[in-house]
Design brief:
Radius of gyration: 21 Å
Number of helices: 3
Structural class: alpha+beta
Helix content: 10-25%
Order of helices and strands: HHHEEEEEEEEEEEEEEEE
């Protein structure tokens, strides 16, 4: 079974294990460091593995911990595209079609701390989670979320992405606000997937682009919150399209994140 990538922040032992997993799967010929090791040793191993995998850039030193984890995550997507990485949940509901899966992602949950006792309260329409009691009082708020129902994020996962694909995703019942569009693709280093989400009153019409001109998925994940038509009116259809795909695209994942309509 393919391994799961631990959520950040990761320690030296977890980093070394992740590099070992990548080396074992790819046969890149790197020498994963054994803790304790210098940052430069991990960087050198990443460069060798990335060169073998292709399509993942490794920034030059000095690198931040966040940059290093970003490279690890990108390599994980390339080597094991079927394995969820932190922040990406496994598929929850499927649609018909050749290789298409429409997925839902659960929101983050509060982590219990201290003695494990937390206090939940709705304040001005928001769910607030307070930390453990200290000297008879509840601690500071540690997590909060809007209690207004918000559709879960959606991702369309495709295999062997081709030019001119068109997937009708759903017909919304109530006005729906899109707050972010994202996508990534794996395949040959020269891959590029122009894609767009549209909505309109008829699923076979021209519709309106959520992002004017669409987006292009190449190396790593692309995302934007600069949206042209973020609100889908009640009763309208939502669909996904690709333009002229370059290179060979083995896997693609294209997503929407939603918010509350005031």
């Amino acid at each position: 079974m393919p391994p799961a990538l631990p959520a950040p922040p990761i320690n030296g032992a977890q980093l070394a294990q992740a590099l070992l997993e990548l080396e074992a799967e790819t046969g890149a010929g790197s020498t994963p460091p054994v803790p304790p090791f210098a940052f430069s040793e991990a960087h050198a191993a990443l460069q060798v593995i990335a060169a073998a995998v292709g399509g993942v850039a490794v920034p030059a030193l000095p690198m931040t911990g966040a940059q290093l984890y970003g490279v690890l995550e990108a390599l994980w997507r390339e080597v094991w595209p079927e394995v969820p990485v932190p922040g990406q949940q496994p598929p929850q509901e499927a649609t018909g079609g050749d290789g298409g899966v429409l997925t839902g992602e659960a929101p983050p949950l509060p982590t219990q701390g201290g003695n494990g006792s937390v206090y939940l309260q709705v304040v001005d329409g928001r769910l607030v989670v307070y930390g453990p009691k200290a000297a008879g009082d509840w601690g500071d708020p540690v997590w909060e979320a809007d209690t207004t129902p918000v559709p879960p994020p959606r991702r369309l996962a495709l295999e062997k992405v081709r030019s001119g694909e068109r997937w009708v995703l759903e017909r919304v019942v109530e006005p729906t606000l899109i707050v972010e569009v994202s996508g990534w693709a794996s395949g040959t280093p020269d891959r590029a997937v122009p894609f767009t989400f549209r909505h309109g009153p008829e699923p076979d019409g021209a519709g309106t682009e959520v992002v004017t001109g669409g987006m292009v998925a190449t190396l790593g994940e692309v995302s934007t919150q600069a949206l042209n038509a973020p609100v889908i009116p009640a009763g309208h259809w939502l669909w996904f399209e690709t333009g002229t795909v370059l290179g060979t695209v083995d896997h693609g994942s294209f997503g929407l994140r939603f918010g509350s309509v005031a």
